Task: structure prediction
Amino acid sequence: MRKLVLILALSLAAGCASSNGVPTMRQTCEDTYDTVWVAAQAAVRRVGGSIVNSNRSSGTILGRLDPDVMGAAIDLHITLSRLPDHQPGTLQPVTVTVRATDPRVEEPSPGRVEDLRTLEERYLRLVGERAACGGPV
Result:
């Protein structure tokens, strides 16, 4: 039993970690999955990015900001997650997680980390303008 608890704890810790020294941010929305999905995609474009890849069934979006926006191409790794027993078209908790990374560097400067974190907060606020979401956490 202790091994199971330890494995679970390590898995959760790994899930919260992020690369490039930038913390992952998330917020929970109480809306339909479809509404949150559309809001998540629209927010990528509203922060100056484009969608490189998306998979609605897995809830993943990869966005990329144009280098003109922040001086370099920035990747936005976005995940939408919901309860496994969801009912299509119903209001339910949908968690939106975003991590902004600068693929050019492994460890960005503290100033760059702050810029990426501000970008994550702005992205989540924009999602919240189109879906019923709480604030970034």
About this structure: The beta strands are 25-31, 49-55, 60-65, 74-82, 92-101. The chain has a mean pLDDT of 84. The two ends are 31 Å apart (CA to CA). The first helix runs from residue 2 to 16.
